[in-house]
Amino acid sequence: MHSSNTKNIFAISGSLRAGSSNHNILHFLAKLAPAGVNFTIYDSLALIPPLDPGLDNESPPDAVFELRSFIKHADAIIICTPEYAYGVPGQLKNALDWTVSSGSLDGKLMALITASTGGENAHAAMLLILGALSANLLPDATLLIPFIRSKMDGEGNVVDDATRVGLVTAFNALLQNL
Fold first, then answer.
1. Using CB atoms within 10 A of its CB, is residue 149 exposed (0-12), middle (13-18) or buried (19+)?
2. pLDDT digits over 31-50, tens only?
3. Rounded distance, CA 141 to CA 154, Å?
4. How far apart are the C-alpha atoms of 158 and 149, rounded to whole Å?
5. How far is CA 52 from CA 6, 56, 89, 146, in A?
6. CB-CB contact of 122 with 90 (8 Å)
7. What does the alpha-carbon distance between residue 128 and residue 88 come to, in Å, rounded to a whole number?
8. pTM to 2 decimals?
9. Angle 26-28-34 from CA coordinates, rounded to 5°
């Protein structure tokens, strides 16, 4: 059991690919988490079924129930996503759609990192989506990282100093609001 002073950060990658730049960014941030902060990287995004309003009730599919539970118990959420075809990855958008009726993200402290080849369109769409879900998205914890692959090495480490500083700054902004 966690002490009452322990804070929980729940991190979601918009990429389903193991070893993606977005997963690697979340692992980078996890290493920065101070004592007293649990940092959980969600790895079950692929298990969320397509949104079916007929199943969106008090007993949703197990994977949806689990996602909502993680969100409920989180003090803050970080979403780190790529851009696919000029938009938000479908599986991430689907998972967020499952939170609409439950109000899971209403007022929830959030950070958003979009790391992709470009990313501007997905970033703009995520700002709209999270606004529609009434998330408490901190402007100082919002970061767009274009051309991410040129800023990481073959092992997934952030090697670009400006990117590293941006990530640390965004993460610290989130931590200061916990």
1. exposed
2. 999 999 999 999 999 999 99
3. 26
4. 9
5. 35, 6, 18, 34
6. no
7. 11
8. 0.95
9. 100
